[in-house]
Write a structure and sequence with these properties.
The protein is an alpha/beta fold. It folds into two domains: about 220 residues, Rossmann fold (3-Layer(aba) Sandwich); about 50 residues, no CATH class. Strands 3-2-1-4-5-7-6-9-8-10-11 form an eleven-stranded mixed β-sheet, sandwiched between helices. Strand 4, helix 7 and strand 5 form a beta-alpha-beta unit. Helix 3 runs parallel beside helix 4 and helix 7 packs across helix 8. It is globular and about 55 Å long.
Amino acid sequence: MNPAQNPVTELVTRYKAELGSITELIDPTMHIFIRLLELQSSRGIGGDMMEIGVFRAGTASLLAAKLKEKERMFLIDPTQNQAQNRQTIEAFAKVKPEQLIFHVLDSLVVNKWREKVLSPSVPLVRFAHIDGEHSYDGVYSDLELARRYITSGGIIVLDDIFNMNSACCTHAMFDYLRDQPLVHLVAMGYRKAYLCESRHVAGYRRFFASLPELLGQTANLHVRLCFNSWAHERSYVTFDDCEPTDPHYQVIGKRFQFLSEALAAIETLT
């Protein structure tokens, strides 16, 4: 399919035209988010969405465009302009007012009092995006909050990973993973980390393994996927930009043009 005629590309193009001035998402991340939501739908994974750290609702608007009729989005941010954000999301995503549930509260407070604040609405979250308060305690608490309400097969996306201006995001994430062995880091790329429950790792791992070909063929975007351990079944992958003619896969410093070559290299050394 011509990338320009791809429905995902069409959505991204409209999103950039309408909300380009307020979004902080880059093109590959936009495509990845939409593809992940479509992957969930194809596998029968339904549920709500949650964003911690809404700001001007740029990311929330893109996510909300994939909400199904009975799904909701929970938006948690103590400094957000609720009226403006509601208008922004509804105008772009064409969702109903009752699908957007705002909490103009600090996420630390929401986590502490979650049974009182959130349980009346009974969230069941399939996609949680965390870009809130960037202290160690704040990030750790936000991961706890998202995990508390994640549905089977859901995914948590954490922002500002390996951003040296917000190093505690990465520190808190790895400490959380150490403390929660049933949560697994699947992939990292463009300063975002993708986490899920360990029993659902295989499905998401296959998605990220196919990412270079998927983005290249459908969006003319080129990324190199890096396998960072010989123990592929127990490790995460990372990805970043590369040139169209560069190798699109890497295994511990060795580069390959095709996924089959990379997996074969792993197989020979495990």
